[in-house]
Structure formats: structure tokens, C-alpha cells
Amino acid sequence: MKNPVARRNGIFSENLEKEKILYDKVNHRAHSLNESAALVWQNADGNKSVGELSELLNRELGIPADEKVVVLAVKQLGEAGLLEEFSPAEVNPELVSRRQLARNFGLAGASAGLLPFVVSVLAPTPAMAGSAVSKITPGKALHDLTTVTVEADLDPAFYHSRTAQVDLGQATQAFAKGQYPTEETDLNGVINALGLPPL
After folding, report:
1. Which residues, in sequence order, are bridge partners of residue 22?
2. Which pTM value belongs to this model?
3. Domains of the chain, with CATH numbers?
């Protein structure tokens, strides 16, 4: 695999707690990167190899120094359009299952949340965002959507709960329309269906 290069042109970034929010001005998409995905994106300068990036993740976050973790991040960043060049053919899908990596490393709960995760949604236009009066900021809405998506992805019950799947889909659509109170209601439906801790 070639050394990854982050796409920076047309990207606005903001740090939010332990994640990075990227706004793609060209494609009007918002991306939420957890700590490990953000660290790979920030350091993907074309000079660092996948091995060097995995060592960096190990030093900075304590994630096992395994190239598969970086490959997972590269796959997600590439699919989100956040790399200069990305060829899905370079990534073996059998090597980059988040769930499998969590099992391999014996990670569960919050520690499994250290594995790379990128959530991308169509960003609402100013007209959409102003259509509903809301005290929930776009950053908080994206943070909540990311948090619940990560928790659901790691919870096997999610794949057996049609209610949770539908609510998460509706929350994503509500976020894309700038309907943050509706998104929050749908996320609470996912939380209740799966018995997750409240936001």
C-alpha cells in the first residue's frame, strides 16, 4: 500500500473533545473522525508509511502497533474522500473489519472506541439548518450521532434490533436536514432499544 496523503484543499477542520470534525467545502459533507482516525489523517503526509503510522498510534493512544489498524483508518478516510489518492483495490476487506480487530485485540466498550471510525453525512445548508429552532449546535448533533453510531456498531444486539437500525437511519437523515431535535429523539430511541448509556 502506498503511503497515504490526506486531502487538505477545501477542508475546514475543528477539534471537538476527543474527535475532529472536518467539513468538505467542495462536496458539502461533514465528517467526524475519532482520535485514531484523526491522528492518521493529520499525519498522512505521504512520507510516513503504514507501519510508521501504526507505531504513532501505539505511542500516542496505546493502540496495538498493528498495520491493520492504519489500513482500517485509510479505508474509511479514503471512502469519505479525505485522501488525495485512494484505491479500494489496495485494501483487503477481510483485513479491516472493526469488529474483528476489536476481538483480536481483546478490546471492548470504551477501549474498542479507540479503533479508527469515520462518520460522514451530507451537511445541511444554512436554509435547512435554520428551518427548525434548536438549541442543539451542529457540532453537538454530529458528536451525538457519532457516539451512538460507534456504540451501536460494537453492540451485537444492534444487528438484531430493527427498531435500533431504523432509528439510527432516521437520526442520520434528520441530521442531514438540520433537524437536530428530531435527530436527538431518534438517537434516544437507539439508546433505549440497545440499553446504552444516555448521551
Report:
1. 13, 31
2. 0.66
3. 11-119 (1.10.10), 124-194 (no CATH)
